[in-house]
Amino acid sequence: MVKQNSRSGLKANFKKILKREHVDVFLVFSAVMVFAALFATSALAQPEGALEQPNQPPALSSFGPDKSSPQEAGAVITWTAQASDPENDPILYRFILNSQPVTDWTLQSQWIWTTSSANVGTSQVEVQVKDGNHNPEGDDSRSEGFTIAMPNQPPAITNFGADKPSPQEAGAVITWMAQASDPENDPILYRFILSGQPVTDWTPRASGSGRPAVPMWEPVRLRCRRRTAITIRKETTQGLQNLP
Ligand SMILES: [Ca+2]
Ligand SMILES: [Ca+2]
Question: Most exposed among 2, 108, 174, 224, judged by the fewest C-beta atoms under 10 Å?
């Protein structure tokens, strides 16, 4: 009788333990499922790309002027930069001339350079870009050299005169000769004018002697040109006189 009671007691206890273990397993399983659900939900709630690489800096793809080097002082040159950013962040540009910034940070990717005689020589033009998430002094840069030359100078007459002194009798043949020089050694054209009327067309300096000669009467005026015409008048009774 005692044995039977003892067996039934053990059985009841065993069932209780099993029941409790079931409950514990169920609770653990439930907790795992809840955490799994929460993790899945949070992962789905993450914005796209949040688990990818951190923000990347922009990079320049091209930079250059709209005119080829060299140009004369006074030329207006537009410099254009192209850059891209992996996240399409707004890109800021800054332009620098010979290590001196000539613009602030701006969204403008162009800079117009109005040159002057102060820019004669070779300059370094630089562009910097940034997206504001990395280096405050710029994430990428490029530079290019550009030469500005002095404007072309006009020629000047250095000598002009006749082969015979004034006066001469009617019928005399008088040869007028001129010489001129050009700072850039550009070819020079000459034209002779008699009493306000051109007696020659614009003609190049004769090869060899370099002295075009035209017989004519006096007074005689000579013009030579290369961009700017220059006039010299020979007054027969007063000697050489330069006129503007
Ligand atoms: Ca970026
Ligand atoms: Ca010249």
Answer: 2
